[in-house]
Amino acid sequence: MREARIWIVVVVAAVGMTLGACGGSADECSPQYRSGFECYYGVCIPANPDAGGETAGETGTDADTPPHDDAGPVEATETLPEGGGCVSAMDCDDGVACTQDLCDPASGDCYHPTAPDDTPCEDDGDPCTQDVCLDGTCAHPVAATCCTGPADCDDANLCTDDTCEAGLCTNAWRPECCTRDADCLAPGHVWECDLETMTCYDPPGGEPCADCMTRRDCGDGGDGSDDWCVIYDWTHHGCSKDCLDDLDCPGAYRCWNESDRACAAGESGCYCVSRFGGCDAIATIGLPCEDSGACTGCTGCDAFTCNGGTCTAPCEVQQDCPWGFSCEGGLCVRGDG
To answer: Does the model's pTM come out above 0.90?
Structure first.
């Protein structure tokens, strides 16, 4: 046994010079040498270091059994480098990306266990695939962020064209499509969305604030109209339209409930009303003036002022101003609004 211990020390020293020291466990061996090796007295050496030695019988190790681990079958190469075998892993490169190249310097044998899954391998040139080893074979699974066809890009929005190009999704909005009235509003007219065809249309009835007596005179018209005739006072009525929130209404209007309060999200029975309390107030914004008195002679105009020769109203957000005006410095001023 003394001779065996001396032999082990010699092997440990020789292998330690070749492979480098490790910590206290096999997991701390350098990754390129880890499979098929173990940490022996602080040095990474091939598994079963006594194999082939004079004390093999004492350890119970079969001298003809190559080292192995759980990474897969290990086979010794039949052809060794010139000079009597390998001395480091660099002598054992088999040119296969999905195997490990290991050297047992004690015997001069090379070993090639299966590389761990997800080890990088040959690039197939497709930007949409991962190039990794799986079960010892170079595979190219599609990356989760890539697409292979339009079905992978479906955003569940019927108003977008879903396409897959070069592995990337695009969801382009179709200009003629709509999912709500807000998609159809533009300065100069108030169109609405036909949810059955998902297209914008121009209602035959009056625009907001057009004169009306009943809702039949406004928007979609007829007894089945979902638009409204708002009564601002006994002599002043104005057409309006249904809404889900303020975005469905033109500028200077807000979405209001028929019970005379702000409409909650998703609530039914809501329509657009002038935030100033009347249509004549909206019509006053932008009129020429010399002093503020010329801007206050209408319902809802008490807070109006003459600014730069033009009647205007206070505002907090863009939606407070009519189309064609912007909210700047707390006042509606003519601009891109």
So the answer is: no
